[in-house]
Amino acid sequence: MDNKQDVKGFLEFVYEFYKTMKAHEITLVYEGEITHQITKAFTSLTESNMSKDDEPNSVQRKVFHVMVECLQNISKHADDFTSNDYLFSGRGIFLVSKGENEYSVTTGNAVENDKIDYLTELLENINRMDKEELKELYKKQMKEGRLSEKGGAGLGFIDIKRKTNKELEYHFLPITNGTSFFLLTSTISRTDN
Amino acid sequence: METIKIQGTEDTPKIILDSENDIMEISGRSLPEDVTAFYEPVLNWLKEYAENPKENTVLNFKLTYFNTASSKLLLDILMILEELKEKGSSVLIKWHYPEEDEDMEEAGDEYADIVDVPFEKVPY
Lengths: 193, 124
Prior knowledge:
- The complex is a heterodimer of chains A (193) and B (124).
- Chain A has 193 residues and is of the alpha+beta class.
- Chain A has helices at residues 2-23, 36-52, 57-77, 116-128, 131-144, 156-164; strands at residues 26-33, 91-98, 102-112, 169-174, 179-189.
- Chain A has one domain (2-189): Heat Shock Protein 90.
- In chain A, α2 packs antiparallel against α3 (57-77).
- In chain B, α1 (35-51) runs parallel beside α2 (68-86).
- Chain B has a six-stranded mixed β-sheet with strand order 1-2-3-4-5-6, with helices on one face.
- In chain B, 40% of the residues lie in helices and 32% in strands.
């Protein structure tokens, strides 16, 4: 009996979850380790959905760009940490939502608190820049930046802002004393392309 | 020189480096899992080629997508060709891009700004 109640409660939760996803127009949600295989699977799934929906090529290309950079941000940075906690081993959440006027791509992953200032400054700096400044920064970083061991080039955020022409929205929520959950949303317009 | 022929996949570009038949081409999509490892043989080939180049060198880029990590390696490739040009060789980069893809066109313009090598833009 108890077990039956549990199952029923769980299934009701699944339905609530489904309704919440629909309400927020979420078309894809994932929690777990972000690998290259996952990146390939999600981008190709989203691509085929977009082409089924006759989304303009320019929108498809931008969504593809943003998805790849967001996913690689997690896979390349999420294990920079000393912690053995499962939160830090290349894992994160990944969501794609499709509204009437825009797509949004959201990622969330744990970061150590001492990264918050660096990330905030980096993102604020990129958000402040106009097209021309971003172009110069990208070129400078491409010339002078070094590839990290995992292939990060420090170009991802700049590229996202350039491709979407929209500010990167972000938020840090405390997990423990030393760690926070870093959320980042990029928006791709479906209309002004 | 040995010829390099790499078949394209959904995440790695097709690459042909054939000095005998004057074919140099990088085309398709580039988001390899390990960019450094993927492009290493390409960079090595070009460095070796630059020691004993043909009179004219034409490299065709016909990419439909590349990620930011690849963009850095593409610059490394172009810098080898820039050196070759500085040594007095004739070098031309042909940058092919889909006609309606402004971002890919602009990417070519940016590389042309950074490296001192003649660029020819080829919309298709």
